[in-house]
Design a protein that fits this description.
alpha+beta; Alpha-Beta Plaits; four-stranded antiparallel β-sheet; 8 helices; 6 strands; elongated; MgtC/SapB/SrpB/YhiD_fam; Protein MgtC; MgtC_SapB_SrpB_YhiD_N; MgtC-like_C
Length: about 240
Amino acid sequence: MTLALHFSSPPSLATTLVELLAAFALGALIGVERQFRQRTAGLRTNTLVSVGAAIFVILGARLFEIDHGSQTPITIVAYVVSGIGFLGAGAIMKEGASVSGLNTAATLWGSGAVGACAGAGFLGEASLATLFVLASNTLLRPLVNRINRRPFSEESSEALYVVYIICARNLNVDIRENILEILDDTGFPVRQMDTHLLGSDEMEIELTLFPTSVNVEELDAAVEKVEKLSGVRQAFWNARDET
């Protein structure tokens, strides 16, 4: 297979320059806000994502002009979106039941969309997309903070419920299965189970339930059933906002 060299005309190169400058400037604008807030993906990352997306879209358009084959610009855009999805997944971190980096990943996705628009020559759309990404990260922040400062209502809020069980370290496996069955049968399926050693002969089982709105009395009744099982010395629960 012979590799052909393609030399773009000055007008095409000028158009590419304008599109890349737009992707660079708009991606940097999003990145400045992220850098100011000390986020994982800051100025350089958002700028690179935007410029990179623009380059791939420009490349797809140029190749389509040369050879009207199967790799249309739309196909290239689809590949770019998939690639940014993997990049965003790398920014998401999970520690126990806590997940962080979702907003960073979503911002990277937005930067990629801005770059794709710029690379396709839709500079107006790229500018509008930038404004909406920035608005999502700035204008909505006071509303989020106000909602988070509201008193937490266990009865009506979707929350993260955690059941704690203090039991003998050599607790029978069947008893553990009984605990899970009791919670599941009463409508509180367990999402995650962790154990922590306490002293020389005890341990704590931490059962994180799926976030839901629950009836407190029903959860109390389920925990009471668990506490009556052989080997279980204490059982209790608490609730906190899902983060």
